[in-house]
Each structure stands twice: as structure tokens, then as C-alpha cells.
Structure of Glucosamine-6-phosphate deaminase:
Amino acid sequence: MQIYTFKTDRELDEAGAGIVISLLRSVPGASLGLATGQTPVGVYEELVKAYRKGHISFKKVNTYNLDEYRGVGKKDPRSFYAFMHQHLFQHIDLPEEQIHIPDGEAEDVILECNRYDALLGNVRQLDLQILGIGLNGHIGFNEPNFRLSYGTHAVILSEETRRVNSSFFHSLEEVPEQAITMGVGAIMKAKKILFIARGEKKAEIVHRALTGPITTECPASLLQLHPDVIVLLDEGAGKLI
Ligand code: GLP
């Protein structure tokens, strides 16, 4: 695990984008695992800048998002699809059919999870998975539990996660109670993981995840078992490391 701490958001964003850019230069048809949340937004902005300067193209790239809320359609501004569209997809040359994200509106959730796993199975291994961390140590929406799931599955979100994510909604009541998430299997199978955390409020959980016991009660602690993780932290999130 390589851990880097940055003084400014800009340096962190450039470093994160730099990793994606060098991947796309050497593997133009890379498969990218993408995350939502505030954490990767600056990295996406840097990628858009690089694309606009003609430094990279996403024409051959396939993207696989970690998760989606249940009961929220692609066109709903609260969906993770809309979030990705706003921050990345609409600005780049990534063909729509190469964007993959669980369908939050699927009537049969088990079928939808199987469909997503089949897609991920075809890829076998994501070239790079971008990952943030929830305040409770979740990755994707793999919440702390006595056991974790390997494959894509439906989850009931914890009260804490819904409260944290309510900043994207008008009120806590509006935050969906369930989501579909990639399991820890696909995440851990990625060739490389780009793990990013910002802010002092994440310092304790980052410390637990990177140096504490490996436990399903802190899903991000599984990253200690991965052979190629790059950790990018700002000074706040890296305070205890
Ligand atoms: C959500 C997402 C995670 C993300 C986490 C942290 O719950 N499912 O993938 O890492 O939030 O979000 P933020 O980056 O806004 O702190």
C-alpha cells in the first residue's frame, strides 16, 4: 500500500487524475470502477480538463459504478447516474453504452444484481477501482456487518449513511432506504485501487481501515489485503496515519 498525503485539494486531485490518465494512455480500452460522493469530484474535474486539452479519450473505456440507490431512476437528479452525468459523463467522449451502473428501478432486484455481476464477470478484473470511504468504513455501499457479500447485492442503508448522504437531498426522509452495490469481491479483484479520503472527520476511520484489524465491521480494512492500493489523503484525513 502506497500512502500519500497532500497539502491542498488541487494537488490531491491532480495526483488522482494523473493515475487515471497514465492508465488510459497505456490501456485506452481500460475498465474503470467509479465512485460517487464528494470525494472523487475534484479528480473527475481534472479528468475533464485533461480530456478538453486532448490529453485523453474515453472512447474505448468502459465504466462500472459501484452502486445506485433503489427506487431512483437514471433521470432522477438524486440518482448516482445523474451525479456521474453531471460531474463526468456529459463532459467527455464516453459512449453511453459503455457506461455501466446498477439499475435502481429494476423490478426484480436479484435479476439486476445477476446482470451486473455478469457484466463484471465479462471484464474479469477492473483495471482501476476508484474508492472513497463512508464515515462508518463502508466501501461502495458495503456496510459494516458480521459478514460481507462477494457479489452485487441489495442493501438496507444504515441510518448514519442515510444521514451523511442527505446533503444531496432536501431532507433525510427523501434519502432512499436501500441501494444496489457491487460486492467486495469485484472491488478486491480490481488490478489497482485508488483509495481517496478527505477531511478530518474521516481521520479516525481511515486510521482504522489502513492500520486496524481486518474485519467485516470495517469493510475498508479489507484493502490491507489488496496487493496494489494507492491511498491519497488530505492532511485532515491523514492526521492519524
Ligand atoms: C457513499 C458512496 C460511497 C462513498 C461514500 C463517501 O455512501 N456509496 O461510494 O465512498 O458515500 O462519500 P463522500 O465522498 O461524500 O464522503
